[in-house]
Design a protein that fits this description.
mainly alpha, about 85% helix, transmembrane
């Protein structure tokens, strides 16, 4: 383990350890998350998914934040995307069971909202996950790649980030082979379908922690996928 890895681990430990060893800090986090879900989604994804991208950069380039990486712009983007993810989870976890009722599973809502775990609840959770990751995830991941490209093209600075974004040009130059061949075709069905099925099976007060862990994995997967060769 190199010096930069040791410093990175120490920094992450200092950041996260208070939530595990201090009961007042954890209680504050729990209550604030319950009362201000969107704000916490911004903070959670801004921090954890950016850390995930830094780990992905370390794996693929040998450094956590090379020149022009743009930690602050990435945190801003991930915070906004995190609020979108929170909204999507609310929409699909409420709407999909209702749609299953429409299709004939009359007790879908009751089964999904009930306590404990059953095969029927797992089925509903799986359909919720498939629906969200099929309709929302590709758009979300493409938007992430567009903003990632813009950050790198503008030197990784906040000032550069707020310059006009040439959406058409960036979209025409995206590595669609990597997006489709790895991010869409592999990570969505083989990782995100089952991962979010587990997420939707958890009690509401545990989904936050699990989603935070998935935020790290998401950053790693997208960072690695974005750097795959054409």
């Amino acid at each position: 383990m190199k010096k930069q890895d040791i410093l990175f681990v120490i920094g992450v430990a200092v950041l996260l350890l208070p939530f595990f060893v201090s009961e007042p800090v954890f209680r504050f986090y729990h209550s604030f998350n319950a009362e201000h879900g969107m704000v916490m989604s911004f903070i959670k994804f801004a921090v954890l998914s950016t850390l995930g991208e830094m780990i992905g950069a370390r794996i693929s380039t040998g450094t956590y934040a090379r020149k022009g990486f743009g930690i602050l712009p990435r945190m801003l983007v991930w915070g906004i995307l995190g609020m979108g993810i929170n909204a999507a989870m609310i929409i699909f976890s409420n709407g999909t069971p209702v749609f299953l009722q429409y299709l004939g599973m009359q007790d879908a809502v009751e089964v999904f909202q009930g306590e404990g775990i059953s095969w029927r609840k797992a089925f509903v959770a799986f359909i919720v996950s498939v629906s969200m990751n099929t309709f929302f995830a590709p758009v979300f991941m493409t938007l992430h790649k567009i903003t990632d490209t813009h950050i790198l093209a503008t030197g990784g600075s906040l000032r550069g980030f707020f310059t006009p974004l040439d959406m058409g040009k960036i979209m025409s130059e995206l590595n669609w082979q990597a997006l489709w061949g790895f991010v869409f075709k592999k990570t969505i069905p083989f990782f995100w379908f089952p991962a979010h099925t587990v997420t939707f099976l958890l009690p509401g007060n545990m989904r936050v922690l699990f989603a935070a862990l998935l935020g790290v994995v998401l950053g790693v997967l997208l960072a690695i996928g974005a750097r795959r060769p054409r």
